[in-house]
Amino acid sequence: MKKKNLSIKEIAKLSNVSVATVSRVINNRSGFSAETREKVLKVINETGYEANNIAKSLRMSRSHSIGIIVPDIGNFFFADIVQKIEELLFERSYATIICNTARSSSKEKAYLKMLESKMIDGLIVISGAEQFELGNINSDFPLICIDRMPKNPESTIFISSNHYQGAFEATELLLSKNCKNLCIALHRKTSSASRERLKGFKDALKKNSIQYNEKNNFLYLPAEKTDNKVSVIKKYLKSNPDIDGIFAVNDNIALVLLDILPQLGKNIPEDIKLIGFDNTSGAYYCKPKLSSVKQNTSKLAQRTVDSLLDIINGKREQVDKYQLESVQLVLRESTD
């Protein structure tokens, strides 16, 4: 018997108790028996009664569990940071509920609803193309966003690496290797991190008196696992035969290029030099080994956990923005 948006008066009627009693149960006050509490909670559960504060109000104590929403757990960077966060939380006696959305907004909404019912103490959201919002969960709920702009940045902690600087340095590296015609490779749906990397790429070109032109300096690759990546790259190279340096906004894109470019007669690094971002394990084991920009995932994880638990323990307001400056170029064969 699911009937949402019931009033507290209707809950009282279905429970055969007074409105005051339902209110006391919801707010965990005294003045009712264990049997009454069980009866009211049963009605709330069966009817799907929702109120902004219900998950918080019904708690007898903290759940000591944290939700983590991640867009692609198969992505090495995401998996690495989730693992580090989980380890740090476990050391502080917190369990984690990891939700892989597969970049689906509907799946994310379903997970948010599930996490609310689990009465988690806090939430960590990692990356994503769209701004993040809590939906029906209280706006003051303990929340940390990593590399994903929150809908309400004035009331949410946002943590990221310096993506702009990493991209700027990667682009300047290609230029220092005598690359004259550069492009940036990325997907059409871009996160706030990717947008910062694009800005860093453009500004590095500008600093070196190279005019940015989307037709020449921008390579869109389909994000889906399709076979048309070869044709997309082939078409781009036909229009831009002089390209000799590519900055890929992540290692996954760089590894696709590392595989396809030789098929199209372009050898790396002899014809085209290539650098990625995230320094995934694949960057070391491919041939040629891939140069990349390394983020400090240990610092990202530590800052995230410390900030979230400070909010939960009432030591701080959840309003701030942290940008970790430590990005590092890891040079390998693809830029030699």
TrEMBL record:
- Which is an annotated GO molecular function term of this record? transcription cis-regulatory region binding
Q: Known InterPro entries for this protein?
A: Cro/C1-type_HTH, HTH_LacI, LacI/GalR-like_sensor, Lambda_DNA-bd_dom_sf, Peripla_BP_I
Q: Where is the signal peptide?
A: none
Cite the entry's keywords alphabetically.
DNA-binding, Repressor, Transcription, Transcription regulation
Span of domain HTH cro/C1-type:
2-51
Q: Looking at the keywords, is Ion transport present?
A: no
Residue span, HTH lacI-type domain: 6-60
Q: Does the keyword Zinc apply?
A: no
PANTHER family per UniProt: LACI-RELATED TRANSCRIPTIONAL REPRESSOR, RIBOSE OPERON REPRESSOR
Q: What is this protein called?
A: Transcriptional regulator, LacI family
Per the UniProt record, the source organism is Sebaldella termitidis (strain ATCC 33386 / NCTC 11300)
